[in-house]
Specification:
The chain is mainly alpha-helical and about 650 residues long. The protein contains 24 helices and 4 strands. It has 4 domains: about 100 residues; about 120 residues, no CATH class; about 150 residues, Tetracycline Repressor, domain 2; about 170 residues, Exocyst complex component Sec6, C-terminal domain (Tetracycline Repressor, domain 2), CATH 1.10.357. Helix 6 crosses helix 7 and helix 13 runs parallel beside helix 15. The protein is rod-shaped. The N and C termini lie far apart (about 135 Å).
């Protein structure tokens, strides 16, 4: 090494070590701890001996030195204190020159280590300058940032070269091992510290209705998203690709976010915080942050994983489901309680489009729908899990609803708005039906089980509405037997007239339920007519008498059918009930009668021998053997199943 070069390594740097010459001057230049190292970051600082002057960071010009001569340690120190990152190149040259001196021999180990300590002290200054800039890269000028990154990249290359040389067979060395320096790891550690500082800042003032946990999640989520977008837009174009700057920031922010949430999950959370935590972990974080439009492509190869472990997520989901189902159950019970109070307090129901209306069905549907939507806002799978649980609660609620309604029917008949509230509750069944059949999308075998309480409620309500009308009709039907069917047409017309006068009472039912009510009326008229035919008080011995009665029955059947269908009855299944009985009474040939009876039994499987005997009793000209032969036709198993709707099972015969 040249003499000049040796002198370059000579000037001291460490505290308490002065160069040959004026110690006081050296003391003025000596850095005073960490504050002195970072003094270069303060722009515009007035320098000693130059009042009124401000020197921008990294802009001071070095004093002129002979061309080709490496700067001295003192000069490099001064450059670095001014933030001049160009000093990195000469500093690396000094390091290499020291290695060459050591390899050449001729210098004592003590002197080598003394000079190395000065080089290492300069590297501390350079490291702090570089990492200081990279600590807050968005605040640095792009050119300064490029310089710092170039220095860091150069140091990484030197580290790799040193590692390769050591692996190839390290020889004896008087110098202390100083590489690898791991500046890239230090930078990443600084990124992690920056993430912790950014995410750990206190959230903004409390927003209305938000818990402390919600504010913390919102702050961390928003900060992470905005910071990563800034890294993608502003830092990625400047950083070398091998630094993976986006991944470094994403991983650091993710780790701190996950640590915060894991700590929170250890505590007993409120119902709301449990939900919010799951929403962030399962939905908002992966979808709105990691897969947001600006970040999705950049983070595709970064395996960040979930914010919580699968076990923690399962425990939280189980807690959420339990909380949510309990909340839905409580809200539905409260809604029913309030509705029941309105009934018993004789509060008139609302009228909507000419129909009596109750809000209960709407309230219950909203409660259940919101419960499922809340679960689906976490994951669709959780929505499917809670769906089945809510179905169970809905079924239990409908049973409670039916019991409360039956109690109202029994105890509150004297109230002025009794019938209106009965109609309103029957109308409720339509909303529940539509919800289950159309919107809830449940297995096909479930609606019948689920809706059975509604069917009972509707049936009891309709029976209550018709109870008075049927009571009025009872003595009119008795006239058929009292007059021995002398004027059946006149009696039936009076019955039809009474029913027609009362139908407006049911106009506030929904159309579908008014039709169902008319089917009940239709069934009642046919049933009561058959009951009167089956009283065994009328015995006709001639074919002419039987044909005359059959004609009356046919005419009456047509009148009942026309009246009921014109008023909305959908009971087409009753169409054959009276005309076929009329035909059995009219026919005289036992074989023909058997055919009619066999056909009749296929339409009405609940038509028994007892019912047939009551009708055949009208035909006084049948012999005992003919009577038994006709009855025996019902012994033949036709394979007919139980009737879906009952007619003759409602008719008792002696």
């Amino acid at each position: 090494m040249s003499e000049a070069s040796s002198e370059d390594l000579a000037p001291p740097l460490a505290a308490g070590e002065a160069p040959d010459g004026d110690e006081e001057a050296a003391a003025k230049k000596r850095p005073r701890g960490l504050a002195a190292v970072f003094r270069v970051f303060t722009k515009g600082r007035k320098k000693k001996g130059r009042p009124g002057s401000a020197e921008p960071e990294g802009d001071s010009e070095p004093q002129s030195r002979p061309a080709g001569r490496l700067p001295t340690v003192e000069e490099l120190k001064a450059d670095l204190e001014r933030g001049r990152l160009e000093a990195a190149g000469p500093l690396l040259a000094l390091e290499r020159e020291l290695q060459a001196v050591m390899a050449a021999g001729g210098m004592s180990e003590e002197e080598l280590l003394r000079r190395q300590s000065k080089v290492e002290a300069l590297y501390v200054l350079l490291r702090d300058q570089v990492l200081g800039l990279l600590r807050r890269p968005l605040e640095a000028a792009p050119e300064r940032l490029r310089q710092a990154l170039a220095v860091l990249a150069e140091q990484e290359r030197e580290d790799r070269a040193a590692a390769a040389a050591a692996a190839a067979g390290p020889g004896p060395s008087a110098l202390a091992a100083t590489r690898p320096r791991h500046w890239l790891q230090l930078w990443r550690r600084g990124v992690a510290q920056a993430a912790e500082e950014r995410l750990g800042q206190r959230p903004a003032a409390a927003a209305e209705g938000r818990t402390e946990a919600e504010r913390a999640f919102l702050h961390m989520g928003r900060t992470m998203k905005e910071d990563l977008e800034a890294v993608v837009e502003r830092l990625k174009p400047l950083f070398p690709a091998e630094f993976a700057v986006v991944a470094a920031y994403a991983e650091s922010y993710h780790e701190h976010f996950a640590a915060q949430l894991a700590d929170l999950a250890q505590f007993e959370l409120s119902e709301r915080d449990t939900y919010v935590l799951l929403v962030w972990v399962q939905n908002l974080y992966p979808n709105d942050i990691i897969n947001s439009p600006k970040l999705a492509g950049e983070l595709q190869g970064v395996r960040l994983g979930s914010l919580l472990s699968p076990k923690q997520i399962r425990l939280l989901e189980a807690t959420f489901l339990c909380n949510q189902v309990a909340s839905v159950k409580e809200l539905m019970a409260r809604a029913l309680e309030l509705e029941s109070q309105r009934w018993t307090q004789d509060v008139a129901p609302q009228r909507l489009d000419g129909h009596c209306h109750s809000e209960l069905a709407i309230d219950i549907i909203q409660i259940i729908s919101q419960g499922q939507a809340k679960a689906e806002s976490i994951t669709l799978d959780l929505g499917m899990q809670i769906k089945h649980m809510l179905l169970v609660e809905l079924a239990a609620f409908l049973k409670s609803y039916q019991r409360a309604f039956d109690e109202f029917l029994e105890r509150c008949k004297q109230l002025r708005n009794y019938r209106a509230n009965v109609i309103a509750n029957i109308n409720n069944c339509l909303s529940f039906r539509m919800f289950v059949d159309q919107k809830w999308q449940i297995p096909q075998d479930l609606p019948s089980h689920l809706l059975s309480p509604l069917n009972e409620l509707k049936s009891h309500g309709v029976d209550t509405l018709l109870q008075n009308l049927f009571g009025v009709l009872k003595p009119l039907f008795k006239r058929f037997t009292q007059t021995r069917w002398a004027a059946p047409a006149q009696t039936l017309e009076e019955i039809i007239s009474v029913v027609g006068e009362r139908l407006p009472e049911f106009s506030e039912l929904q159309d579908c339920f008014r039709e169902e009510l008319m089917e009940v009326v239709h069934l009642h008229l046919v049933k009561e007519y058959i009951i009167r035919l089956s009283k065994r008080r009328l015995v006709l011995k001639t074919a002419e008498q039987q044909q005359q009665l059959a004609g009356h029955i046919l005419a009456d059947a047509e009148l009942i059918h026309r009246f009921c269908t014109q008023n909305g009855s959908p009971a087409t299944w009753l169409h054959h009930a009276l005309p076929t009985l009329a035909e059995i009474i009219r026919l005289q040939d036992p074989s023909a009668i058997k055919i009619e009876v066999a056909t009749y039994a296929t339409w009405y499987p609940d038509f028994s021998k007892g019912h047939l005997s009551a009708i055949l009793a009208i035909k006084g000209n049948l012999s005992n053997s003919e009577f038994r032969g006709i009855r025996s036709i019902l012994d033949i198993n036709t394979g007919v199943r139980e009737p879906s709707k009952s007619l003759f099972s409602l008719i008792k015969v002696g």
